[in-house]
Specification:
4 strands; alpha+beta
Length: 89
């Protein structure tokens, strides 16, 4: 049996930790959430924002399959969701 070696992701997690610590040091407290409902066709869609009302939001864009920086309004309007599926006839 062959053993598959996994890539070392520790540096990526450290970069993520450093970014979170930088936000906290700037007085921003990141909050992590998950959108799920009719606005995004019942797809789980993680997003994060800080404790300031005018701060940018980071959301997982379901069309692009990547995180993007956006606004609260665009996220809640469903701009980063997959298009709704057409019903079969």
């Amino acid at each position: 049996m062959e053993t598959i070696t996994q890539p070392d992701t520790a540096p990526l997690w450290q970069n993520f930790t450093n970014a979170l610590n930088a936000l906290v040091a700037a007085g921003l407290r990141p909050d992590f959430h998950n959108l799920y409902g009719t606005a995004n066709n019942w797809q789980h869609q993680p997003y994060a924002h800080s404790n300031h009302g005018d701060s940018p939001w980071v959301v997982f864009d379901l069309r692009e399959r990547a995180y993007t920086v956006t606004t609260r309004e665009r996220t809640l309007a469903g701009e980063h969701s997959r298009p709704r599926r057409r019903k079969r006839r």
